[in-house]
Amino acid sequence: MKHLLSMNDLSKVDIEKIFRLTDKLKNKQTNDLKGKNIALIFQKPSTRTRVSFTVAINQLGGNAITLNWNELQLGRGETVEDTTRVLERYVDAIVARVFSHEDLVKMAKISKVPVINALSDLEHPCQALADLYTIKQKKKNLRRLKIVFLGDGANNTFHSLILACEKFGLDIVVSCPNNYRPKVRAKYKIIEDPKEAVKDADILYTDVFVSMGQETEQEKRLKELQKYQLNSKLVELAKKDVIVLHPLPAHRGQEITSDVIDGENSVVFDQAENRLHTEKAILYLLMK
Asked: What is the number of other CB atoms lying within 10 angstroms of the CB of residue 178?
């Protein structure tokens, strides 16, 4: 594996290797990336991705160079290809958070150094790896588990998580309106009634109803997705030991209620912490 653009770039064996590396590297300072420079490009705002990758690189002994899209000549019209051809001569890897997945594809086609998808409109594989690692951490294994996603099934984060869960045979249920179905090829069930969908669930997952770039559709989306809010009534219908996941940032009172995200079933902040640990493993695997 040279680049990580999609969960389809990883096999089950690759993911298991990443998890073993995560266990090994967690909370450790090393010099594995000593002398390595990694460019972090951000076209979209970021909290967890920016900080977790910066700390991960530092903990591996490398140097992170953070670049906002508009600080680069990309913001003034330089092509993605030209920027990539220059950066690959300066740095040892490129981590990019972009609007268009196609920009990542363009980078990867010509880049001689690893390109990592730190979120695009299609996928968010780094988040999905942290999610799956959190599930394994809390449930001890990934066998015979039922995960239910509530809300916008065409969500980029959930696209990656579907593909990850499918590799391990999880029972995947998506509860969403018909026009919000996932846009990736994978095995999952659609159950539009959220009360029916969450029965016997081991994992409940949701994400924002209005993602970056969808602000003009906010009123329409909030109205159509309102009944898929992850609240205490739905949690009570799932298994008693159900865990609640959300990739953050959360819009409390929209896709999830505060009592759920702060409740005893929530592992949301462990999930956020695991971004750091799994990203260290991703960097190690691609660069060592």
From this structure: 8
| Contact in structure between 277 and 22 (CB atoms under 8 Å) | yes
Burial class (CB in 10 A: 0-12, 13-18, 19+), 66: middle
Could you give phi then psi for residue 103, rounded to 5 degrees?
-65, -35
User: pLDDT tens digits for 65-107?
Assistant: 999 988 889 878 899 999 999 999 999 999 999 999 999 999 9
Instruction: Tell me the domains of the chain and their CATH numbers.
Output: 7-124+275-287 (3.40.50.1370), 125-272 (3.40.50.1370)
List, in order, residues 6 or more apart from 48 with CB less than 8 Å away. 248, 272, 275
Please name the helix (run of DSSP H) or strand (run of DSSP E) that holds residue 162, with its range, or none. helix 156-167
Q: Is the peptide bond before 125 cis (omega within 30 degrees of 0)?
A: no
> Three-state DSSP class for 41?
strand
Query: 199 by DSSP, 3-state: which?
Result: coil
Please give the Cα distance from 139 to 151 (Å, whole number): 24
Region 8-24: what's the mean pLDDT? Answer: 97
